Amino acid sequence: MTDTKPAAPRAGLSKARAAKNAVELVMNIIFFVCGIASVLCVAAITFYMIISGTPAIKEIGLWNFLFGTEWAPTASDPKFGILPMILTSIVGTMGAILIGVPLGLFTAVFICYLTPKKLGKLLVSAVELLAGIPSVIFGLVGMIVLSPFIANVFKIPSGATLLTSMLVLAVMILPTIVSVTITSLKAVPQEYYDGSLALGATPVTSIFKMNIRAAKSGIITGIVLGVGRAIGETMAIIMVSGNVPNMPNLFKSVRFLTTGIVSEMSYSAGLHRQSLFSIGLVLFIFIFIINLILNTILKKGAKDR
Amino acid sequence: MKKLTSIIAVALMASLVLASCGDNETSSNNTESSTSGSSVIASEPSTSTSETSQEDEKLTGTVSMSGSTSMEKMAKALAESFNAKYPDVAIDIQLGGSSTGITNAQEGVSDIGNVSRDLKEDETGLVAHKVALDGIGVVVNLENPVEDLTMDQIAKIYTGEITNWSEVGGEDLEIYVVGREDGSGTRDAFESVTGVGENAQYDSLQTSTGAAKTTVATTPGAIGYVSFDSVDDTVKTLKVGGVEISTDTIKDGSYTLQRPFVMVTKEGAELSDAAQAFLDYVLSDEGQEVCVQVGLVSIN
């Protein structure tokens, strides 16, 4: 009798422990499945893009596909050159960065250092709202407001041009650049700024020569993220770019890689459709490269610190 | 450890690429068949049989069609409503262009060839059944004073020979040429009927009729084309050679920017019961009603 008494709670304890272990195990499995799911998705997409993108490239020829200047997929002598679209995507993204980065950087500096706290909060929430606006709205405003404005200013028949697309993209990447820049500027120790002031530098000099340099890697991360967003954007620019596969020209209608896929998917057949998948593969590789660059920057930034 | 994972990842990628090369033959075939637009409208379950008579239910078999991409929408709509009546008939619609439709009908590969133009003289050995007419409206901005263009002027505008509205009796305004994307049936029809062919010079390509109309409506110097059923008052529809577009002018042929949709069968060959029934259905009032619903003009 006396022997069994201490044994009973011990059995209960081990039972509780076993139950705990079981829950632990189940949770582990659930987390494992969730973790693997996203990896599987990436692998499946990669696999699918390669499988469906390569046949057309093989048939057209890699050189003709990437460096051909004419896109006429339904002609009797079909041409599948996507160089105009590749260049448009690159030039358009660069233009958006050239316009968007200074704007975003100055906005972030203003919010962080030069504005009263209340106004700063208002600005931050405005920028956050900008990030939440669906891209089709950007396209709509670009089409109805910006495009006629551009047409009027530059005396061209229509504002559906590369320039309009760049401006729309620049506004769209602003939230990314601003919010990442704010975060990295806030991470710069206050002593840097104070020290700079103590040495006799003006506030603006201190900000630009000291804090922005210290936050460099974070700002570059924001820019690269912006590039990623700009190069992948479709809906907004299909409404303002005019969609003719011309070589990039600020005042002419152009077609981006993304809009190239969307605009012809619905009626395409055979090699034409396969070649659209190949455009997707090219775009995928672009994004892949951008991500690699981003990772390198992040790693370097971590090392610097 | 990290290196090991990245090596494994690279190896995995490489094997994926290799696998894709090895599988290439089959995978490209797969995409071919799935993307060339082949679509078997499977016989529907017997939900609608209650209203069909005993006789109708006996009709079984397959109707195979091939040809014009522009006729796909019409063919699919017809197949669907036909299947509602005869659920046991499978209708197979293959694309590939009008010429493919003619060859397939001549060689007996398909029961019916879909041809979206008049037959050429050397295309013999076929019985042509005109099933519908496809009209295309030429539209400009509401502020544009031009009312009327000849077919020749339209062709010259789209090939870039005429670049200013003053050359065709309008204001001194640069012409902004709006069209549809490659593969669009309306674009194909417009370019073949006007004779522009592949020489068209576009300033803007839109991906839908609505987008094309919006572009024309918001651009003062624009000209565009839309299918007959989507002509409305957000844009101004021009007369072609002095004739206004309407169901009547398309039917009597005086409006020239139109093309026929023709279903061809092999001359002298006995059609299967299912194919004959389908063809009869298409030409019946009911079938013509379906054609009108997809934006065409009935032949009756």
Task: Provide a short characterization of the protein structure.
Chain A is mainly alpha-helical. Chain A has twelve helices and two strands. In chain A, strands 1-2 form a two-stranded antiparallel sheet.
Written account of the structure:
The complex is a heterodimer of chains A (305) and B (300). Chain A has 305 residues and is mainly α. Chain A has helices at 4-60, 62-67, 83-114, 117-132, 135-154, 162-186, 190-198, 203-214, 216-232, 235-238, 257-265, 271-304; strands at residues 71-72, 79-80. A two-stranded antiparallel ribbon of chain A has the order 1-2. In chain A, β1 and β2 (79-80) form a beta hairpin. In chain A, α3 (83-114) runs parallel beside α6 (162-186). The longest helix of chain A is centred in the first third of the chain and has 57 residues, at 4-60. Chain B is of the alpha/beta class and 300 residues long. Chain B is 38% helix and 22% strand. The radius of gyration of chain B is 24 Å and the shape is elongated. Chain B starts with a helix and ends with a strand. Classes of the chains: A mainly alpha (305), B alpha/beta (300).
Label the overall shape of chain A. Answer: flat
What gyration radius of chain A follows from the Cα positions, in whole Å?
27 Å
Please give the most extensive interface between any two protein chains, plus how many residues each contributes.
A-B, 43 and 43 residues
Strand content of chain B: 15-25%
Structural class of chain A: mainly alpha
Portion in helices of chain A: over 70%
Name the structural class of chain B. Answer: alpha/beta
Q: For the terminal residues of chain B, how far apart are their CA atoms? A: 77 Å
**N to C succession of SSEs of chain A:** HHEEHHHHHHHHHH
CATH class division of the largest domain in chain A:
Mainly Alpha
The total beta strand count of chain A reads 2
Q: What is the helix fraction of residues of chain B, given as a range?
A: 25-40%
Q: What count of helical segments of chain B does DSSP give?
A: 11
CATH superfamily of the largest domain in chain A: MetI-like
Adjacency order of strands in the biggest sheet of chain A:
1-2
CATH topology of the largest domain in chain B: D-Maltodextrin-Binding Protein, domain 2
Could you name the CATH class of the largest domain in chain B? Alpha Beta
The stretches of 5 or more residues of chain A where confidence is low (pLDDT under 50) are: none
What's the total count of β strands of chain B? 13
Could you say how many structural domains of chain B there are in total?
2
According to CATH, the homologous superfamily of the largest domain in chain B is Periplasmic binding protein-like II
